[in-house]
From TrEMBL, chains A, B:
Catalytic reaction list: Endonucleolytic cleavage at a junction such as a reciprocal single-stranded crossover between two homologous DNA duplexes (Holliday junction)
GO CC, alphabetical: cytoplasm
Role: Endonuclease that resolves Holliday junction intermediates in genetic recombination. Cleaves mobile four-strand junctions by introducing symmetrical nicks in paired strands. Promotes annealing of linear ssDNA with homologous dsDNA. Required for DNA repair, homologous recombination and chromosome segregation.
Gene name of the record: recU
Any single GO BP term: DNA repair
EC number: 3.1.21.10
Family: Belongs to the RecU family.
Annotated source species: Pseudoneobacillus rhizosphaerae
A Pfam family that the UniProt record links to this protein: RecU
Predominant cellular place of this UniProt entry's protein: cytoplasm
Protein's name according to its UniProt entry: Holliday junction resolvase RecU
Native organism taxonomy: Bacteria, Bacillati, Bacillota, Bacilli, Bacillales
Cofactor(s) required for function per UniProt: Mg(2+)
Compartments, record wording: Cytoplasm
Chain residues that bind Mg(2+): 88, 90, 103, 122
GO MF assignments: crossover junction DNA endonuclease activity; magnesium ion binding; nucleic acid binding
Length: 204, 204
């Protein structure tokens, strides 16, 4: 029952992901077992919430609802709807009073991360969040090597603007290593990105 | 093409709301013209975003997608989906670096605001946000009088706990006037709740 967005990204129903990857599952191992970045982040955010470390949620998939039916004695059924492009990044929430906002993306390439993974309105949103002194970043995963990096929003904007100025349409792996921060894959939490932002930003 | 949630709340497609109530419309007047609280807040947040005052969005309606079809040469169509109960409040974002989180509710009553308007998981979310030092509140609207109040999250929790302890299942209008903060309806922005939170909370 997996289907794909127009952009080729696999859609994973939330409940299915939770059932398969419950953090109570004793068979969990440190290996990544083919989990997507989204599944790893959902587990991580669940861990953060349950332990009052941070309250961060993935936003629901935006859907344009066109037709709904109301069968007697059962729940309303949406019979026609379309995927809409999100106007923000996918994840946001609060850590120590501060606003946290990020987007997570994967690539099958190994030497660079294509900027076409981001939409212009997401870049605009990141820019707006930075102007409001929010904490904004992206989490980039290289599926082949399973390497994961956190790249701060202002750095992403620099690479985006280089592209707009006629420069390369991707960020090289060397640039990501130089300007980004490696996130190691653990058990609980899976991807401890809060540990990274705790080092980068100052919290009262 | 209006339909209703199981809870009786009218569902307003976003694009329709934007078209009808564009803030560029010269025929706009100060009167409320039957706008819902959600429409007013969408216009307010749009105004805040366009003027870099705050970056606050309404979260998409959570939908459980069951079946999608992929017609040739056209967009994917969701053919079966169901409304899900939200696990958070509807609105969140950033103001001066701080995390802002709120829920907006209306009542047709005039003497009290029923607590059944809130779900237990929303109360839990509000409580979690407060523990992370986020700014959490609810916006309450009395549709008959068109009076609108901002009530801080911790005050809502006090009334909620009173109910759990066997007390009344609503907040009286006098209590809301005493503990809440009146929001006047204006033109741009429609409901200037940021002005209220600027008075309540301290910002660096």
């Amino acid at each position: 029952m997996n289907f794909h967005y127009p952009n080729g990204k696999r859609y994973i129903p939330k409940t299915a992901a939770l059932k398969t990857n419950s953090i109570k599952n004793k068979n969990d191992s440190y290996s990544n077992r083919g989990m997507t970045l989204e599944e790893d982040l959902n587990l991580t955010n669940e861990y953060y919430r349950e332990n009052n470390i941070a309250i961060i949620h993935k936003k629901p998939t935006p859907v344009q609802i066109v037709h709904v039916e109301y069968p007697k004695r059962s729940a309303a059924v949406i019979k026609e709807a379309y995927f809409k492009q999100a106007s923000t990044t996918d994840y946001n929430g609060v850590y120590k009073g501060k606003y946290i906002d990020f987007e997570a993306k994967e690539t099958k390439l190994s030497q660079s991360f294509p900027l076409k993974n981001f939409h212009e309105h997401q870049i605009k949103h990141i820019s707006s969040v930075l102007k409001q002194n929010g904490i904004s970043f992206v989490i980039l995963r290289f599926t082949i090597t399973e390497d994961i990096y956190l790249l701060e929003g202002d750095k992403l904007l620099t690479f985006w603007n280089r592209m707009l100025d006629g420069g390369r349409k991707s960020i090289t792996i060397d640039e990501i290593k130089q300007y980004g921060h490696s996130i190691s894959v653990g058990y609980h939490p899976r991807l401890d990105y809060i540990k990274v932002i705790e080092k980068i930003y100052s919290f009262n």
